[in-house]
Design goal:
Number of domains: 1
Distance between the termini: 53 Å
Number of helices: 4
Strand order of the largest sheet: 2-3-1-4
Shape: globular
Structural class: alpha+beta
CATH class: Alpha Beta
Length: about 150
């Protein structure tokens, strides 16, 4: 009986993590749809990607030091933060961990890769690792303009 209860608890934990990840993906897709709608009006092609992540700040006083470097650096490679650095407002499920979440948009996967692999980011990352613990980072492609239902 105890083992069955434990297994149910473990399954719920994975279910909650799945709901959480699905929620982040839904936010990225919604943001992508909004961006795509704006791009369609401008008659241009959007091949953007979204970087999603979760971090726990360990040094709140020094965090602005990192943000001051990382924000403009991301911009140099076509990135910006449309959904800032914040705790999410959950609709369903439970967060698998406390922390702040971010979604950054990059004009292209090439730009994101150049940012992540740049010498400047590698240096900034040393500071980031002193002020925050990264739980995860992943990227998703934006929805192509011609795949929109309207």
């Amino acid at each position: 009986m105890i083992q069955v209860t434990y297994l149910k608890g473990e399954l719920m934990k994975y279910k909650n993590i799945g709901i959480f990840i699905a929620s982040l993906i839904a936010v990225a897709i919604a943001s992508s749809l909004i961006t795509q709608k704006l791009v369609v009006k401008n008659n241009s092609t959007d091949r953007s990607v979204y970087l999603l992540g979760s971090v726990t700040t360990t040094d709140h006083e020094r965090l602005p030091e990192y943000q001051k470097v990382a924000g403009p650096l991301a911009g140099k490679f076509g990135g910006y933060v449309p959904l800032a650095f914040s705790k999410p407002n959950m609709i369903e499920g439970q967060l698998p961990a406390s922390g702040h979440f971010f979604i950054e948009r990059y004009d292209s996967l090439e730009g994101l890769n150049k940012f992540i692999n740049s010498a400047e980011f590698k240096e900034a990352k040393k500071l980031r690792d002193q002020v925050a613990n990264v739980h995860f980072m992943m990227w998703l492609p934006a929805i192509p303009t011609d795949s929109l239902p309207h």
